[in-house]
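Sample intake sheet
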Amino acid sequence: MGIRVASVPSGHVYVRHLSADGGDGVERLPDPRPGTHIPDAQWWPPRMLESAWVHEHAGEFDLMHVHFGFDASSPEGLADLVAALREESKPLVLTVHDLRNPHHLEPGLHDAQLGVLVAAAGALVTLTPGAAAEIRRRWGREAKVLPHPHVVEEPTHSRPRPRHDGFVIGVHAKSLRASMDPLPDVQAIAEVMGQMPGARLRVDAHTDVLTPVFARYAPDLADGLRDLEAQGLVELHVHDYFSDADLWDYFQGLDLSVLPYRFGTHSGWLEACYDLGTAVAAPDCGFYAEQRPCLRYAVGPASVRRASLQQAVLTAYRERPQWRADPGERRAEREMLAEAHRRIYEQALAGSTSCTS
């Protein structure tokens, strides 16, 4: 018997790769368009998180599984969602990806949102033992630990890494999430470039944060990066969002990707690098090192972070770590994840709590 899941969302790469290629008897509903004026491909903000949607579509799904997308929902709105699910006898499953929202400067709202969902969920999932321990400490709930599936698809996942000269270190500012302050990290790495003959420091940023006409323009970052570029210390690349194919090429053009985060929990970026054989230096906040192999550096204070990051980069240069996911193991992992999620859904529908033990 198939299980119909109102997955929030279903189109995200993480969620897509929870399904087995051969079929696992789980049907995840397609993401409803947030509005008539919004393209079909966009799922955020999710309409499934509205209590009215639950009541209107209750006959179309058996349970709801929330992953992402509740950033824009108030705790009161989530309480209404939970009440609607309860009224319609629909279990809630929650995967806790982020214990700290990377888009929020302060943790209070996300804490309140999680508090509503964690308390109401019949089953909890997270990605690492450390995150499970934090959930236990904060809410007294047990979460099933299941790894992040592969991000990169075949045949790209298995293609050989292209050769390039030197050692390329990459820092990507993206569109400057609240969790990011990349300029001090770029400056710290630039200081030790002279200790790494043949090394290059590539810095990428999206057009919206380095172009004055955009609302998200960050003048301090733009001026600092342009100054480093003028000194010949960085190769600066300003562009719009990469397509997936461009992003995979970018990763395989790097020997080391530095994650310039101030806070966070888990990382799909780290998973993609692991798929493609690009080493990662990640901060010691969150649980990145439990997720996949990586070099670690200290979050702060500033002087400690600077020295620790420099040491991590120098270690990567000297040791050249070779961490890459085995495609066969990734396929087996995906099959395991599909089966594990089906069991969680079956137990949630049966009213069992054993799936969180």
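Comment: The first strand starts at residue 3 and ends at 8. The domain at 156-319 is CATH 3.40.50.2000 (Rossmann fold).
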